[in-house]
Structures are given as C-alpha cells and as structure tokens.
User: Fold this.
Amino acid sequence: MNVCVIIPAAGRSERFGTADKLAQDLGGRPLLMRTVELFTKREEVNSILVAAPPDSIEDFKNRYGASLGFHGARIVEGGRTERWESIRNALRAAPECTHIAVHDAARPAVSKALLDRLFEAAQSLAAVVPAVEIAATVKRVAEQTTDVADHAEDALADAILGEAGRQSIPARQVCETIDRRGLVEVQTPQIFETELLRRAYEQDDLGGATDDAMLVERLGEAVYVVEGDRANIKVTTPADLKLVRALLGVRAPSQRPIHKRF
Assistant:
C-alpha cells in the first residue's frame, strides 16, 4: 500500500470557544501535531497533507509549518465553508498513491491497534471506516425549541434585571425513539482506494456530506465498517480535551514543571 493521509484543519471550531483548538497543549505538543504523529511511523504512509484555513494560511504556516515539515507533512489550502471543500482541494494536490486516508485533525487518540485493523482491511476492501455501536437510547427531537423560563415571582428582581434576571432552559419535544439495532457512530481515519475517492469527489453535488464515506455511498459503492475504538474521541469542546488528556495520560501545562511546559 502507498497511502496519502489528508488531515482537514481549516474548520473554525466554534464549539470549542475562542481559543485555537488545534494549538492546545497535549503532552507538550500541539493537538494537531499529536494527530499528525499518528501516521509518521506507519510504513504504509508515504505522504501527509494538512488542509489549512485559506484566509489565514500564512499564520498557520508560521505556527505549524516547521514542525509539520520536520515530519514530512505538507500544508495545502483548505476550504472556506464546508469540510468537503478541504478534502477536494487536498485531493487535487495529492501525490500518486494507491489509497487515501482522511482523518479529523482533532482526533489525536487513535490507537495502533485501530490503525492496524484499518490498514489491514483496506488491503482487501475499497472503502473502510471505523465505527462503534451506539449503546445509548436514541431519540429524534423536534427542531422547534420551547423556552422554559424561571417563572418565580420576584417583583424586585424583575424590576431591576427584567428578562435578564430569569433563567432560560431550552427544551425540545421528542418525536420518536429510534431502534438502535444496526446503528453505529462513525469515526476516522476513513481509508479509500484513491480512484474511488476521486470519483466520489467528482460528483456534481457534494453538499450535505458529513464524511467522505457518504460521498462514496452516493456512487452506489460499498462502504465497510470495522470495529472502532471508544477512546478515539474527537475534541470538540474543552471538556473533550480534558478527557483526551486523561486517556493519553498527559497533564495540562499548569500541572507540569515549568521546564516541561509547552
């Protein structure tokens, strides 16, 4: 196998807050670098492309360029709006290879065992994704939100604070409970034969695609699932970062000696 890894890193990460999610310290290195390092010692991987925010690509290069270059990774221009734009741009810049692996920049906790399973399966299957079974009860809820306000009568508080003094609790009505049999939560990396993924991205309508396998499915091609790993968490919120640090056994900068801080 000759694998090119594409890591989309152009997203705004709005749910994480104002801080740069990919720059967060993870054992003395930025989260992004921990993710890239997952692939640098894999014999199957011969190239790594990181899709950066196009409107701040020079700042991205200044921040990560040297470290990425040290690992042989190359920065390419990502998309401005949708994730699929970053993948499409990276595919155009990808060198000759037999397979493309696409991995979320904010998943730094992929185990070697999971990568072994994926790369082994990809030698026989054209499209392979990791996934874990959904264990919780799944419900579909209405889009409309009902505002449940604190209706405690306090004339003085209302006079001083008005509506700002009341606690607001958004609530959404349950429409149905979904049978979870056969449902899985998909992770990355997702691995595809290069020609197949290129065909998927040559389709006219790429809108609404939340992962690469979805575009392959639109071609009518088979996508196969292998066992994922519940520790393969995508860092979306600060709470996720704390959990990943615990899983990897690393401490936050404030908890490490000064000379070992990032």
